[in-house]
Amino acid sequence: MAATVVEQKPSLLRQPLAVWAVAFACVIAFMGIGLVDPILPAIAEGLDATQTQTSLLFTSYLVITGVAMLFTSWLSTRIGARRTLLFGLAMIVVFALAAGLSQNVESVIGFRAGWGLGNALFISTALATIVGAASGGPGSAIILYEAALGLGIAIGPLLGGLLGSVSWRGPFFGTAVLMAVAFIAIATLLKKDAETPPTPTPLSAPFRALRRPALATFAITALFYNIGFFILLAYTPYVLPLNEMGLGFTFFGWGVALAITSVWVAPWLTRRIPKTHVLWGALLLLAADLVAAGLSTGHTGALITCVVIGGLMLGVMNTVLTESVMEATDLPRQVASSSYSAVRFIGGAVAPPLASAIGGVMGASVPFYVAAGSVVVAALIVLLFRRYIRHVDHHEAPDRVAEAEAITQGEDL
């Protein structure tokens, strides 16, 4: 009698140790995005800096991250994924430590820029590494990556608030220690790169990739969406009359909401609704939430609620937008990731100083309305240029060529 073979369904939690090592490091790397949120007022007071100056802690970080993203695939295909990851982590350790030792806000801004360079090397390589090595296909890998993003963004403000209640320098020192732990984890659990180096990517590849209509559409959508994202993230701490721990818990709730919708809600929606419909629908709901946030300035409880609800929308957007980008073209995943990430981070870099300047001149509510308008523009881009991206609505399981590409990328570990 022939034996019956039962094929087990791939599990999100059944991943190689290499994937978990990178995911762990991703959590810590993404903590850096929200880490300074609860301590922005404390830094301004401790270093006698203005609100606009402290908002540049986000701008310097994101500008360098975005620009460097255009060159990370060129570097990683020459020195290998493992070396690129370790080099990026080492830079974050050094610059986070230097920021904590700084004596003026200009130095902190500069060291945050160096931190952003290390983050760019790590993040773009980590996404391609996880997608290539994870079991269960690109969808599971991206969910894992976005879960790490959500967890990191959630823990970052909480850790920042906890350590920042002692000293504004504490979060920077804490990040340096945790990144050192991540460095050890990557060095220990990731196998050394194969002797045969990967095929080098031309320096012009990420720039040429943006000529693809589908990738360009998603990148420009992400640019306007990230303006709304980072106004909510970087401007709200100045409006909420809370101490470091209060801000930490507020954005911890925001990050938890983001993680929940990233891992569970977004996949549920895309199984039932076309991805492009999910995108513009989530963007319009986020715009409505930002308008409500603008109307809630002066009402602490209502504004906190808007922040957490915004996290729900952001989680859906992050997962669906990232997955759509990876499915939009036949480009190597590292190239697509670098091009898209460069544009979206540059968009986010504009938001913090813009919000501070507008808020100082036109009132505390206006930056939220600007954020809402930017998000509406992102929704209109999805709708008006849907002919370039609607093929992602019908994307099915990757074919053998895509699977082979994923296996090949996984061999870089």
Automatic annotation (TrEMBL):
GO terms for molecular function: transmembrane transporter activity. Its main location: membrane. Pfam families: MFS_1. Keywords: Membrane, Transmembrane, Transmembrane helix. InterPro entries: MFS (IPR011701), MFS_dom (IPR020846), MFS_trans_sf (IPR036259), Tet-R_TetA/multi-R_MdtG-like (IPR001958), YfmO-like (IPR053200). GO terms for cellular component: plasma membrane. It is found in: Cell membrane. It is a multi-pass membrane protein. The keyword Transmembrane helix applies. The keyword Chaperone does not apply. Gene3D superfamilies: MFS general substrate transporter like domains. PANTHER family: MULTIDRUG EFFLUX PROTEIN YFMO (PTHR43683:SF1). This is MFS transporter. It comes from Cnuibacter physcomitrellae.
